[in-house]
Q: What sequence folds into this?
């Protein structure tokens, strides 16, 4: 099992979510984050004070998948998140030791992304 | 100046006092509209949306003083007025002909109408139109569309001459802005994410507060359009309470039928639709018919919003539905239910004068055609000189940062001060957390 963590532009999220859903990966978590990287800051002016803000808003996606699915999920994210400009974001893949479904106590890879009907419900 | 003073003498202090207050009430409607609109857009476009309304105050006030007022209110030319009142020439303390208030007050009162109408049109193009071209458009639109339509129905132009009744601006303000908004949405085009992502209002509380303040200001808008404290103004004032309340009630029912819940943004929209519906009819129909108008006006506007959101037309804040269609309904309603016993001027079809309905139909057809056509041509002309919208990247970043360099909800986290405030020695320091 692997956890895929992606930091992406806001506008990339909706295409990624829709594509992952169609490919059978409905389970993910999303958070609004701010971060800095090589993307240059934005100049703002308030009441005579001029400042540059290097913290830019991004969307963070977290998604745990079986080892065999990592390539597919990462490629899907890369495909939709890439504009070619600085600030497109980063994707990280982390090992995951164990996984449990809270409702039943089941464990293992079977509990990941196990919603075959999710795409149809869209 | 002596000539102007010599004409004075017919000014009524009570009427003037009310009109001074009414003018201030109407001016409040523009920032109120800014708040209403700002709540309806996404967080990243809050300030730009509000600033389009504030920008309208700057631009339309100047154009109105330069030529707009004169083109609307000088003489009784069929299509436009003259230039004798340009730059406030001959506008002084003497009463405006046909009123008991100084022409200066009349000028200011009418200026606030022009301002809010320009601001209304911005609702069609928020979240993607560039700020500079919008200000240029505002300046030209206030003259080419607003002043012309105001002349037609208020200034003795051909619509007024053929008998169209329009108490407070169903023609220039409501239909003028609504059908111009449709043209503007078509020329500027949809937001890039329109139809592909949910583009939601970011603060429904702003929307409700904005609608409430608009309603408050509308008492000056309609109540002042009799230019006195006499019967027409009193009737209009009361109808401005009755009609929107009825629209609100019916809208809640329509919402319940459609989705089994009463929505807050729907309620705010209903207040606007009701205020718009009564605008042309305010001083012409009885309070009972005003209540009926409120109920009736809800339906076509409601259906227009339902229809519009299913199309590819990104007329973003539904200016057509709330203003164009509701103004259309109000203008026609006068033709049927105007009663001489209340207005002292004319009866509608229901009270025996079918001709009045004919006069109203002419206005209801001519206004949309002119507003749509002229706005379409004007924006196409501006588009030939300047791009009307920014890049997709700008749109993703948000208009606030791109055009104003500010955020509505700035936190200051991660900000580095480049040009420090006050007498600070080191030019670079991390801003203090807010």
A:
């Amino acid at each position: 099992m692997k956890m895929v963590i992606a930091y992406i532009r806001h506008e990339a999220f909706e295409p990624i979510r829709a594509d992952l859903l169609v490919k059978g990966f409905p389970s993910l978590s999303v958070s609004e984050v701010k971060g800095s990287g090589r993307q240059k800051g934005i100049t703002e002016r308030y009441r005579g004070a001029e400042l540059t803000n290097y913290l830019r808003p991004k969307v963070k996606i977290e998604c745990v998948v079986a080892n065999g699915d990592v390539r597919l999920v990462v490629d899907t994210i890369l495909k939709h998140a890439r504009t070619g400009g600085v600030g497109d974001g980063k994707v990280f893949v982390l090992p995951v030791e164990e996984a449990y479904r809270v409702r039943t106590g089941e464990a293992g890879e079977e509990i990941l992304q196990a919603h075959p009907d999710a795409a149809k419900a869209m | 100046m002596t000539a102007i003073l010599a004409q004075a003498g017919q000014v009524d202090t009570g009427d003037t006092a009310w009109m001074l207050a009414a003018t201030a009430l109407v001016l409040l409607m523009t920032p109120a509209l800014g708040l209403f609109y700002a709540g309806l857009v996404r967080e990243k476009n809050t300030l730009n949306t509000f600033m389009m309304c504030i920008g309208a105050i700057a631009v339309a006030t100047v154009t109105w003083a330069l030529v707009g007022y004169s083109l609307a209110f000088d003489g009784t030319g069929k299509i436009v007025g003259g230039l004798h009142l340009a730059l406030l020439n001959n506008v002084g303390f003497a009463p405006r002909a046909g009123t008991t208030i100084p022409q200066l007050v009349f000028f200011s009162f009418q200026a606030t109408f022009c301002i809010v109408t320009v601001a209304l049109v911005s609702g069609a193009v928020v979240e993607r139109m560039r700020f500079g071209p919008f200000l240029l458009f505002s300046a030209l639109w206030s003259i080419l569309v607003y002043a012309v339509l105001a002349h037609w129905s208020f200034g003795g132009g051909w619509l007024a001459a053929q008998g169209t009744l329009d108490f407070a601006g169903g023609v220039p303000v409501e239909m003028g802005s609504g059908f111009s908004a449709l043209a503007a949405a078509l020329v500027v085009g949809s937001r890039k994410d329109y139809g592909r992502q949910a583009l939601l209002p970011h603060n429904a509380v702003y929307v409700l507060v904005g609608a409430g303040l608009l309603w408050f200001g509308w008492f000056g808008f309609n109540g002042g359009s009799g230019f006195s404290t006499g019967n027409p103004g009193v009737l209009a004032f009361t109808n401005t309470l009755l009609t929107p309340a009825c629209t609100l009630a019916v809208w809640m029912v329509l919402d319940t039928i459609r989705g089994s819940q009463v929505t807050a943004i729907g309620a705010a929209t209903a207040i606007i639709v009701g205020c718009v519906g009564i605008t042309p009819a305010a001083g012409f129909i009885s309070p009972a018919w005003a209540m009926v108008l409120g109920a009736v006006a809800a339906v076509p506007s409601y259906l227009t919003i339902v229809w519009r959101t299913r199309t590819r037309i990104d007329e973003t804040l539904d200016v057509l539905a709330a203003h164009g269609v509701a103004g259309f309904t109000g203008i026609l309603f006068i033709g049927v239910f105007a009663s001489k016993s209340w207005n002292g001027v004319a009866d509608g079809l229901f009270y025996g004068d079918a001709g009045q309905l004919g006069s109203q139909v002419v206005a209801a057809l001519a206004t949309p055609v002119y507003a749509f056509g002229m706005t379409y041509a004007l924006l196409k002309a501006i588009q030939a000189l300047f791009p009307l919208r920014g890049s997709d990247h700008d749109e993703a970043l948000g208009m606030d940062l791109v055009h104003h360099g500010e955020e509505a909800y700035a936190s200051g986290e991660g900000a580095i001060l480049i040009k420090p405030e006050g007498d600070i020695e080191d030019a670079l320091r991390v801003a203090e957390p807010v």
